[in-house]
Each structure stands twice: as C-alpha cells, then as structure tokens.
Amino acid sequence: MTALAIVALLLAAGPAVLSWRNFRIFHPPVSETGPAVDVAILIPARNEARNIAAAVAAALGNPGAEVIVLDDLSDDGTDEIVAEIGAREPRVFLVRGKPLPTGWCGKNWACAQLARAATRPLLLFVDADVRLKPDAAGSIANWLRESGAQLASGIPRQELGTFSERLLIPLIHFVLLGFLPLKRMRESQHPAYATGCGQLVVADAEAYRKAGGHEAVRARIHDGLALPKVFREAGLRTDLFDATEFATCRMYRSDTETWRGFGKNTHEGLGAPARIVPATLILLLGQVMPFALLVAAPWLTTLQLTCALAACALALFSRLLAAKRFHQPLMMIVLHPVAIFALLAIQWIGLVRYLCGKSAEWKGRRQPCSHVPAGRAGVASDNRLAPARPTGHVATNPLAGNRVPAADA
User: Fold this and answer.
1) Backbone angles phi, psi at 76, to 5 degrees
2) I want to staple 92 with a disulfide (CB 3.0 to 4.6 A). Which of 8, 77, 86, 312 is the partner?
3) 348 and 385 share a domain?
4) Mean of per-residue pLDDT scores for the chain
C-alpha cells in the first residue's frame, strides 16, 4: 500500500508541475485592431442551420476578412441562410460542396474544398459552432506571423450546458497542458509533438499546400492532431495558443452528443492502440487512485495518508488553474476523478468499436474505420485535388464548384 501511495503521488505530481510550467507560456494573442485583409475565414457546414447565421455574423465582425462557407450537402436549409446573409454582405461567399469521395472524412473534404476557394494568404478554419470575437482574425494572424509557425491552433472558451459537457469538456485543457511540454514542442519540429484543436486552426496558405493540407489527412477523424503532424513531417513549424478571449465554442448540446462526440475519434487520440494502456495506467494511478486511497483513510499509515492527500491536491491543482484561466465551473472540479474515469471508459469503448470495425457515425455519415494512406501534394490518387484555380475575387473552382457571392449562389 505504501508503494501504491508513493506511485500515485509521483504520477499526480508530473501533470501538476508541467501544467504550472505550461501556464506561464501558454499565452493569448495580443489584441490587434484593424482590417484583417490577409485572412480568409473558412467555415465547413453540414446541417448547421442552428449555428451558421451566428457563426457568419461573428466572422463578419472581423473587418477586411473574407468569409467563405462550404455547404456540405445539407438538407436543413443551411445554404439558404448563408445566401440570405450574402445578399446583404459582399464579403460572404458560398461554396456548394461536392459529394464525399471514398476514403475521406467529411470535415477534411469540406476543408480541402474551402482552402481551394480561398484567395487570401492566411487560412483561418473555424467550426460552425465557433464564434469569433471582433478583431480576432487580425490578432490571430499577427500572432502566427510573430510566432514563426506556419500553422497554429487555438482553444476557444468552451461554453458548457449539460452535465456531461461540464464534466468532460474541461479535460481538454487538463490533458493538453498536463501532458504536452509546450516549451519543448516549440523548440522541436518532431511530429511526436504535433497537437492542436480542430475547432480553430490558422495556417499559412503556401505552407498548407506544401504540407498537402487536408488531402494529406483525408481519412483522419481527429484533424486537430493530424494536420499539425503532416506540417511537421514537411519540415514546418506548428504552435498552440490560448484563444479563450478571442472565440467561444459550444461543442455539443446534450449529454448524448457529448458522449458520442468524445467517442468518435478515440482511436486517434488517447485511445490509440499504442497509447491507451500507458495512458490508462498514468491517469488511473495519478488522478483516480489518490481519491480511492482516501476512502481507506482509517486503515492507512501516516505516510500513506500523507502521500494520498498530497496526490489529491496535486491532481486538482491544474484543474484549479484552468478553472480560473479558462472560465470553467469550479464546482465540477470535485468530480475530477469521476471525469477521468469516464474519459477512460469512452476511450476503451471507442477503441473496441474501432477494432471491431464499427465506425462512428457523425452528422449522418459513417466515419472511415481504417486509415487511407495520407496523400501528399503532388502524389496521384483517385481523389487528388484539382489543379489550383485561377486567382481572383470570384472564380470557378474545379474542386469545389463555383465559389460565388452567397447572394448569387
């Protein structure tokens, strides 16, 4: 029991110390005012009628940026909403998405088409449930230039409603800042340090094409991890920033959506076959076991109880830092071991389903159950992206159809 208490203490200390170090260098962009004339805000949208108007309106709060929405074969009137906005706003463009090719995930196909339709040197991909703050695009663009990276992603402020959202979504920051050494990541171009948040990604357009863009990760579900990796494999730099004050996101709207959303890409993250066993041991022993030991407090020695109490305090330390910094609910911190246990359960269930060939379904589509080899730019394949379209504010895109002002779509 003494050895178990000491191991729990050591495994709780690691993420706590790394979180403290990361919090000191995980900064938001400096707020910049002025037109974002070099930025294209790209929004993939499939059946996003409840979100798209607010997403486009928020994007338009960034003067100078062009806003391109891809309607990914929606059947809920998403395209009509965009067209109506475009009748009033000349900076809004609508791309009508092509049918999903074999071997592609829907979001990656949508983003690839959006990138082909953009004319600006910087590409800012945002999900339809992300709300950019005014001047966010210019601030993020300036941050990317000053960082020296060619791709970066930011974690918006997460708006939480249901119990499952409040329980699980704060773990995004916990896992990221507790297990990724940001300083080493910025000093190295090794693909092992690739990470990101697919909700908000900014990339240099030329570097994006060099790395192969979303075509290179076409079969991957977790684009937030996959896209930075192919950038690094191409010799490019990637980075991460705090977007709490520049964007908000309501990822899910129900307990069911939250569990399904967390489960759809587990086999590419913590639930990957090579990671899940060590991740489970580290998280169970360092984040759950200390609290389990306290249940047996009357039978513990002074040393064992001291180690358990210290481990509990360390396990909650980074959650307390994150709650203050990222506006997370304080009351949910006491359920931290429950959240970790639930997260691991989702990882294992997702991995078992993946190994059994039961692919996840999202937005009415079955996700690929096995990876198609990542296609690099210039490598022939049946689904190869079309040649670059002519430049110009309004042009025909052989990949995505006609990119036209939304009012004319």
Assistant:
1) -115, 15
2) 86
3) no
4) 87
User: What is the pairing mode between strands 39-45 and 122-126?
Assistant: parallel
Q: Could you give the CA distance from residue 139 to residue 158 in angstroms, rounded to a whole number?
A: 19
* Count of structural domains within the chain: 2
Domain end call among 346, 361, 376: 361
How many CA atoms lie less than 13 Å away from 265 in the CB half-sphere? 17
Amino acid, single-letter form, for residue 122: L
Three-point CA angle 158, 159, 162, nearest 5°: 120
The pLDDT tens digits for 87-127 are 999 999 999 999 999 989 999 999 999 999 999 999 999 99
Virtual torsion, Cα 15, 315, 20, 321, nearest 10 deg: 140
Residues 82 and 225 in one domain: yes
Which pTM does this prediction carry? 0.86
Looking at the chain, the whole-number percentage of residues with pLDDT higher than 70 is: 87
Domain that holds residue 314: 2-23+269-361
Sign of the alpha-carbon dihedral angle for 245, 157, 214, 68: negative
Among residues 207, 82, 67, the alpha carbon closest in space to that of 125 is found at: 67
Rounded Cα gap, residues 407 and 409, in angstroms: 6
